[in-house]
User: What shape does this take?
Amino acid sequence: MSKTAGNNSKTLPKFDPVPSAKFACEVLNELKIDGILIGRLAVWMYLPDTSEHAYTKDFDVAVSKKNRLEIAKYLTNRGYEVRELTIGGFNARISEKDVNVDFIDRYSEEVGNLSDLFGDAISQANETVRIEDTELKIVSVEHLIAMKLATTEKKDEDDAKRLLKEDRTDIGRLRKITRQFLGNFGIVSLERVLLEIGHKEARQRKKYGDS
Assistant: This one.
C-alpha cells in the first residue's frame, strides 16, 4: 500500500491478518476454547469502505480469564514466547511466521476489570467471519462499540463513531450493554458520542440517565 503526494511517495505500514488468524484458530480449536475476533480487525469487518480501515499491527481475540491462562500455558509449554498485557491478557508473537496475536480477557487490577463485558460478548457472539480459509466468530457491533468506549482513548472513540455512522447498530441493545458493564460513565460517553455524530437516536444531555 502506498500514498503519493506530488513527486514524493510514502510507503504505509501493512498488516496481513491471515497468518495470525490461522494461528489463533488453530490454538482455539486444539484446546476447544471459545474466542471471538475483537479490536481493529473486527472494526474492519463492519466497515465496508476500506478507506475507513485504520491501521492495526495485531490480531485481537477475546477469551475468558480461565481460558486465557490455559492458552498461555499451552503456548509456553510448546516453546512460544508470551508477553503479559497490562490491560489483561497476553501477546503471542512469532516474527518468522508473521504471527502477532493478543489473547485478551480484560481482567486487570491496574487499568480496570472488564472481564464481565468480554465474557458476555463471547457468549452472545453469533456471527462468523472468514479470513481466507479460516473462520472465527466475531464480536457483535454493540459489544464492540462498548469495548471501544471503555478505553476512553481517542482512537477507540473514533472507531466507535465510525461504527455508529454505519447505522447497523441496535442502539437500545447498545445502551443496555453499556449501562450493565460500564455504568453511568459509559452511558454519558455513549450519549455524548451519539450527539456529536448527529445520530437520529441521540438524546439530550438532561436525559443521559434514562434507560
